[in-house]
């Protein structure tokens, strides 16, 4: 068991869900002539129950639930998808969804078996939540403040499941974090249907990626009073080979820039810079302004009051495709002020 301290905050977060125990409604299955298989395993909890956690103690400010919550009891939702939400910050299409009603993971070492049937061959990603607290913005199968979730270093994580001409067993769906925030699922970017990416081929040359960071969130007087947020601070920004892995961790850094002080205090302000040299490939811009927390090597991630980019289910990135020429990337929006410390996840 591992515990979570009271410093637990931050945006990002997470959630998804999918079938089991023969409970819940099953979606329309594959064609009758297609061979299908099942996956099975157990749902577990690895985070210690801590009613004094700030998320539980002050949850009425967010979701209105009482102190009887944060008890690891509630409906369990499991989602099976073809991609993990951490890759884009958006909720992908759910291939299968089911509910274990009134589940109880309150006892140390508790586990609950699950099975998902009628799956054709393919690679899937499993994630979910324990609906430990009432939702105020979204349907109950989307995690909000106080729910138990599956989280990696900086983003929601999934369990990869490969179905290849046979049933799959022994899967562990472990809930190791408490969801620290609640936001409505309303990202316009998540509603957009992306076209298939071209496949860049290394031509032996390198190019320049021009990038622009913009502030797209209002900084109120209260943000300044309580946290000291003013839109001014060091900017750390990187070009990654993927936004986040299915483990919820950032992709590998291809190039990174650090600026001692960037001033985005004025509404709509922006800061432009270059990544160079960059070979052909598909990359993702990710970073934050260290407005308040004074990041260190030991605690390098965003904390309360810092400016970050966020989508529906987690941190956001700006995709960049380099394919035979210099590129002016779409703006990277800092559209959220952190409400918890990612270093404590």
Compact overview of the structure:
The protein has about 350 residues and is mainly beta. Helix content is about 5%, strand content about 35%.
The dominant shape is globular
Total number of helices: 3
Strand content: 35-45%
For the secondary structure, the number of strands is 19
Order of helices and strands: EHEEEEEEEEHEHEEEEEEEEE
End-to-end C-alpha gap:
14 Å
Uncertain segments of ≥5 residues (pLDDT<50)? 1-28, 60-68
Radius of gyration from CA coordinates: 21 Å
Q: What's the overall average pLDDT, rounded?
A: 78
| Helix/strand structural class | mainly beta
3D structure, described in words:
This protein has 345 residues and is mainly beta. It folds into two domains: 37-178, Immunoglobulins (Immunoglobulin-like, Sandwich), CATH 2.60.40.10; 188-340, no CATH class. 4% of the residues lie in helices and 37% in strands. The chain is built from three helices and 19 strands. The strands form five sheets. Strands 2, 3, 5, 6, 7 and 9 form a six-stranded antiparallel sheet that branches.
């Amino acid at each position: 068991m591992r515990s979570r301290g009271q410093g637990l905050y931050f945006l990002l977060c997470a959630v998804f869900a999918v079938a089991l125990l023969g409970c819940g409604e099953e979606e329309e299955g594959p064609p009758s002539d297609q061979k299908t298989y099942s996956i099975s395993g157990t749902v577990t909890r690895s985070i210690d129950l801590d009613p004094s956690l700030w998320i539980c103690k002050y949850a009425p400010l967010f979701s209105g639930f009482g102190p009887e919550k944060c008890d690891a009891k509630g409906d369990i939702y499991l989602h099976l998808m073809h991609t993990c939400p951490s890759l884009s910050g958006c909720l992908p299409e759910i291939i299968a969804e089911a509910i274990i009603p009134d589940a109880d993971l309150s006892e140390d070492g508790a586990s609950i078996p699950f099975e998902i049937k009628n799956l054709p061959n393919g690679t899937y990603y499993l994630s979910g939540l324990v609906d430990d607290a009432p939702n105020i913005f979204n349907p109950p199968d989307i995690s909000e403040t106080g729910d138990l979730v599956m989280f990696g270093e900086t983003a929601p994580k999934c369990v990869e499941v490969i179905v290849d001409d046979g049933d799959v067993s022994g899967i562990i769906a472990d809930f190791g974090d408490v969801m620290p925030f609640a936001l409505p699922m309303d990202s316009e970017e998540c509603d957009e249907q992306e076209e298939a990416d071209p496949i860049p081929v290394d031509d032996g040359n390198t190019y320049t990626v021009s990038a622009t960071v913009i502030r797209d969130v209002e900084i109120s007087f209260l943000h300044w009073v309580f946290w000291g947020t003013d839109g001014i601070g060091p900017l750390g920004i990187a070009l990654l080979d993927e936004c986040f892995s299915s483990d919820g961790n950032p992709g590998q850094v291809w190039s990174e820039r650090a600026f001692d002080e960037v001033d985005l205090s004025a509404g709509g302000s922006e800061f432009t810079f270059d990544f160079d040299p960059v070979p052909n490939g598909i990359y993702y811009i990710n970073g934050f302004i260290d407005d308040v927390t004074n990041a260190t090597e030991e605690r390098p991630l965003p904390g309360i009051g810092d400016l970050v980019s966020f989508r529906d289910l987690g941190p956001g990135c700006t995709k960049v495709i380099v394919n035979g020429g210099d590129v002016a990337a779409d703006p990277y929006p800092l559209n959220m002020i952190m409400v918890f410390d990612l270093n404590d996840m």
